[in-house]
Amino acid sequence: MSDIHDAGHAGPIKSPKQLLTTVILAFVLPVFAIIGLVLYVTAGNKPASGAANPELAVAHRIQKVGFVEVRDANRPLRSGEEVFKGQCAACHATGAAGAPKLGDTATWAPRIQTGFEALVHSALQGKGAMAPQGGGDFNDTEIARGVAYMADAAGANFPEPPAPAAEGASAPASAASGS
Ligand code: HEC
């Protein structure tokens, strides 16, 4: 008790060495803490490290995977435009990941020349950065309609594939039977 009293108002710092340590802790540490915070905040929008193609990495991240959906098996088939907007636009509206853009005639022309069947095959099986079915879970006829919609927007003249079997969809009766 009397010791503390003798030291007057010295507090916990009792030697120059302790003072030095305290000064360093009090001034240098916050600087590093701030640097750390700045790095943390600015790191948010950077592409994942090691991503050679950030656009592709983003496209992969925003692509829908694994979700549960309860649906009516007898629902009317989506039109090509609906399929495009729901699924394909993620890449094909902007050309993300090197996808041929909607309405970009020059990019589509050589692809259209390979024929409707080949394009549908690519869309169903996947090609390059495009996952099978464009990453979605539309049925094959709907995917084919999406293909026809995109190809037609770029100058092709593929008819919208009709619904299979005797479904009363409003498909054009004159649709050609493919190749
Ligand atoms: C994750 C992005 C992505 C999505 C989603 C996507 N595509 Fe693609 N698609 C691509 C890319 C990339 C290519 C170019 C592939 C290549 O040539 O290497 C491509 C190419 C194509 C081609 C041309 C294939 C060929 O043989 O030249 C068709 C047709 C196509 N997509 C249809 C679709 C349809 C239909 C959908 C929607 C159901 C869809 N895509 C969704 C990325 C995507």
From TrEMBL:
<keyword id="KW-0349">Heme</keyword>
<dbReference type="InterPro" id="IPR009056">
    <property type="entry name" value="Cyt_c-like_dom"/>
</dbReference>
<keyword id="KW-0813">Transport</keyword>
<dbReference type="InterPro" id="IPR036909">
    <property type="entry name" value="Cyt_c-like_dom_sf"/>
</dbReference>
<dbReference type="GO" id="GO:0009055">
    <property type="term" value="F:electron transfer activity"/>
</dbReference>
<keyword id="KW-0408">Iron</keyword>
<keyword id="KW-0479">Metal-binding</keyword>
<dbReference type="GO" id="GO:0020037">
    <property type="term" value="F:heme binding"/>
</dbReference>
<dbReference type="InterPro" id="IPR002323">
    <property type="entry name" value="Cyt_CIE"/>
</dbReference>
<feature type="region of interest" description="Disordered">
    <location>
        <begin position="157"/>
        <end position="179"/>
    </location>
</feature>
<feature type="compositionally biased region" description="Low complexity">
    <location>
        <begin position="165"/>
        <end position="179"/>
    </location>
</feature>
<keyword id="KW-0249">Electron transport</keyword>
<feature type="domain" description="Cytochrome c">
    <location>
        <begin position="75"/>
        <end position="154"/>
    </location>
</feature>
<keyword id="KW-0472">Membrane</keyword>
<dbReference type="Pfam" id="PF13442">
    <property type="entry name" value="Cytochrome_CBB3"/>
</dbReference>
<protein>
    <submittedName>
        <fullName>Cytochrome c5 family protein</fullName>
    </submittedName>
</protein>
<keyword id="KW-1133">Transmembrane helix</keyword>
<feature type="transmembrane region" description="Helical">
    <location>
        <begin position="20"/>
        <end position="41"/>
    </location>
</feature>
<dbReference type="GO" id="GO:0005506">
    <property type="term" value="F:iron ion binding"/>
</dbReference>
<keyword id="KW-0812">Transmembrane</keyword>
